[in-house]
From TrEMBL:
Species in which this protein is naturally found: Nocardiopsis flavescens
Matches recorded under Pfam families: M20_dimer, Peptidase_M20
Family from the record: Belongs to the peptidase M20A family.
Residue ranges occupied by any Peptidase M20 dimerisation domain in the UniProt entry: 169-259
Keywords for this protein: Hydrolase
SUPFAM superfamilies in the record: Bacterial exopeptidase dimerisation domain, Zn-dependent exopeptidases
Superkingdom classification of source: Bacteria
Name of the protein in its database record: Peptidase M20 domain-containing protein 2
InterPro entries membership: Amidohydrolase, Bact_exopeptidase_dim_dom, Peptidase_M20, Peptidase_M20/M20A_hydrolases, Peptidase_M20_dimer, Xaa-Arg_dipeptidase
GO cellular component term, pick one: cytoplasm
Amino acid sequence: MTAEPGGAPGADAHLDRLIAYSQTLHAHPETAWQEHRAARWTAELLEEYGFDVRTAYLGFPTALHASYGSGRRRVGFVVEYDALPGLGHACGHNLIAAMSAGAAIALRPWADRLDLRIDVIGAPAEEGGGGKIELLEAGAFLDLDLALMAHPGPVDAARAEPYAVAHDHVRFTGRAAHAAAYPHEGRNANDAFVVAQVALGLLRQQLPPGTRVHGIQTVGGQAPNAIPETTEGRWYTRAPSLAELEPLRRRVERCFEAGALASDTVLEFTPESRPYSEFRTDERALEIYTRHALALGRTFDAPPEQRTMNRASTDMGNVSQRVPAIHPYIGLGCFPVSNHQPEFAAACVGEAADRVIRDGATLLARTAHEYFGGAGNAGPAPRG
């Protein structure tokens, strides 16, 4: 085991390796459930620093679990590494991976002193696939005393306040026909989508405050002179909590049913993942994180309209319902450039991104260090 130093953990000693790892992920984006290279590179990084790594964790090919130490108390750092279709790492998951892995590496020298086992959980498919929920249901996370990760955004925002969200796949099936010669023989699946979108637009004026409904049509037909037989889309419904989400989702589904009824087509409205939950913050851990962030020179005084990335949905919310957790947002200082824009993907490499890796890894490690007694208190007893 590594010798125990004084002071507090920091990422500087390993920063060059973390930056190289982050840049490699950024240059080779992989979408949900396809993160084979990212999982391998993460495993290789952690093995370099003495972690015991299990790949294909709990039967998920692109999930992993790494551990260091054998203490009774367990802290988990959560790695995300999936990218967005067509946008690459425009949500900054390459930085999340580097911060979480870097925090675990930085905390290693304190494992014995704090009676810790340090876990790293590589969780695939955050972008709509609910990878953490699948892992949670398979038994991951449940033995942790604290789970931590940080997410890049335009500015710093300490508290995660994400919407609960449902992700649904929409498919209309009609009947193809020649649009000029035999239009009366067709059943237009694209018309179904048009009717549904009009219904959704009208629904929005009656939506409860603090809810969101949005999506895209991914298949709209093949030729202008052929009545589309099949159309498809992906739709998200968001609400402040799971309890409020389901009735709203049902109203959204009825809009798509209206499209099918009007066009005489058949609707399939199918969940793409289990719903993501609202977040339950561990207040003590968040207070520690915020205090250390201020000491590092980070600030939380950006205008409210710049801090709204903290409303973005995450399957880490489901983890937080079962395990003490935090999910702060750490700023690249790039507003009005924001997540899920090509410009944000570009901002996730370079000088500002390197600082986010250094600060984020350091802050997560220092939060865990103090939480478990490294600042002179006994810390929490092991759960269970």
